[in-house]
Amino acid sequence: MADPSSSFLCPITRELMTDPVIDPDGNSYERSAIEDWLKQHSTSPITRTPLRLNDLRPNRALRESIEEYRNKQSSSNTITKSKPITIVNNQSFDLKVTSSWLNDFTHISIQPPEGIGIRAPCDICCVVDTSGSMSTEVEIQGVSNDKEKYGLSQLDLVKHALKTIIHSLTQNDRLSIVSFANSAQILFKLHQMDDDGRSSALAALERLNDNGQTNLWDGLRTGLEVLTEGQRTTESNIALFLLTDGCPNIEPPRGHLPALAAYKTKTNFTCSINTFGFGYNLDSKLLEDLAQIGNCGSYAFIPDGSFVGTIFVNAISNLLTTAATNLQLSIGGIQPALDSSSNYICNYSTNISNHKLCDEPMLCLNLGSITFGQSKDVVIPMTMDQYKKMEIILDYESPQGQKKKQCKSLERLDGDIKLLNHQKYRLELVDIIRKGYELLRGSEETFTTNQQSVLDNIETLEQTIKNHSTNDNYLTDLLTDLTGQIKTAFSRYDWFVKWGIHYLPSITRAHLLQQCNNFKDPGVQHYGQGQLFNTVRDEMDAIFCDLPAPKRAGSGAPIDMSVFNDADNPCFHGSCTVKLFDGSIKFVKDLRRGDRLYPHGGTINYVLKTICNNRQVQMVLLDSGLIITPWHPIRLNGVTWVLPCSLVSCPTNIICEAVYSFALDQGHTIWVNDIECVTLGHGFKEDIVRHIYYGSERVIEDLRIMDGQQNCTGFIEIQSKWVIRNKRTGLVNGIRQPENIDIISN
């Protein structure tokens, strides 16, 4: 069946409409879908303007056109669904600005539309380092020297990441590829990603070969020229992705940053520059500064192969769900307050501007891009009198490049202490890390001299956040970021110089810009909460994992690309101990159906034993003695769910015959080495712990079936390859025992 016109598809359900209705702004929806939406909202899902049920009218003309389409396609029994990432809406969207004052702080929030099934076209130029070092073999790293190799180079994984981008784009989008080594080369000119364009782009990737030096500036300049010269009259979201694994060894005469600043002044380019650093031989400070000058783009650190998928899936998802670009928030009328708030605003790119809509100079904060469903927030200390005098002007570019202005259209709200604390402590975290990073850079003597003061500042903020984090998932996860990888990076000189100097700019930039840049750091998972972002990200994740794997050098087993997106099953090591309801202790490996657990008295229905591939598995070792897979949720203090991987610097590669998990009749948690851990089929819906399969009745049904296939004792033995993933999303959706397989008795 031919694809229907996008106007025939409901923007909420993304399905062909049968009973379309139209709102006063001319947007059409399936009647039942918009009625369900308006039961929970009072605004349009597209424009966010007020909308009521009695504003809707039947769209008879559209209904007739859809029926005519159906008749022409009657030979097909399938109604095609449009992928969310392919829908393009030509409207411009207004951003909403609100403010509130509480406890001598003003919270300014910029709110985008939700963006259900809607995105603008994109122009992307990928600038790829092809210097000789890109031939370095990729490793998946555990701890110290525990590394696994797959016969793939850095460039092989870069190509796979770029294939993910190519397959995520539609005929409304355009892509270009520029390579650089001794000099830059336009490998693929800016071209629509229709079928022909996609095929040509994939062919161009195969011409990427590693050799030569690292002339980063020539690659960056060439990429910017491609985007500037190819700019559309009706603009799209424009971005440059710069991928490199080293320090430039060919520099422009005045240096990279002055050269980029001068080029920006000359051309006034509007695209964002997003930088990606592979491995540990990086100039991360340069990459972050280039992103900052490049219209507040992002910087991401990719230490090893396991981060390639998680970084690029989130990067392309952020770009595809961009609602507006080049946000500039101008604040006036309160200069003394602005002068005293450096720790809250100094990490943004700022300047003093004489805005034509204001009589006095204003402080301008460059906030970069904003995605559908995710706010941008600023906090400034000031008195109530200053707040009353405050003036705000927001300038930004819509997806179609129409310049928007909001002057004196500020909606003042009552203060909300929870929201205020979220933004205060987010910005305080960014400031403490940035200052600590600058203070400790240099020699080992410099590090040793200043380390304690940096750790003291971290511990002060840690205690402050702890005092406000009860029943607050965001602050709990922000605290996990702070006390986990961030604090670890400052704890030892060798860790700081190897990976801390690269990781810290990446994590702070994500928190500053309020962008989710990976699947791993708990705090950043709270950004990118819009429905469109999550839909697009699921699509990107599936594309990365489902694309044919790169060819490895030499012989070897097929490569599952989900390895490079770091996914684990929830399990315990058999030597761990579990407290029973009667106070006695058992080893995990000795638990069986009928055992009653502390403290709730829940009884074990199923024990699931998973045989480890090659007798090895990546696990986290906690101080209590708990040995657990990195992504198995645990609950701290009976309140906060966290992932074990967030509590240590990195997992450990354990020699292990098998790991174990359990399903209970009630309670759905198990105390292993005095730590509360979730069990299978729990049904919990909180952040971190919820899971579409492991938390549902479907896993219990699969266990019941396998129990019947094996021995009906409640003890089930499987191999890890029996875990099934959804081909579209890459998420686990089943465990199946292959037919005609011999099961080893327990």
Automatic annotation (TrEMBL):
Domain VWFA span(s) in chain numbering: 123-316
Gene Ontology biological process terms in this record: protein ubiquitination
GO molecular function, one term: ubiquitin-protein transferase activity
Domain U-box: 3-76
A Pfam family the protein falls into: Vwaint
Alphabetized InterPro entries for the sequence: CLCR (IPR051266), Hint_dom_sf (IPR036844), Ubox_domain (IPR003613), Vint_dom (IPR039510), Vwaint_dom (IPR032838), VWF_A (IPR002035), vWFA_dom_sf (IPR036465), Znf_RING/FYVE/PHD (IPR013083)
Top-rank lineage group of the source organism: Eukaryota
CDD domains reported in the protein's UniProt record: RING-Ubox_WDSUB1-like
Protein name, entry field: U-box domain-containing protein
Source organism of this protein record: Rotaria sordida
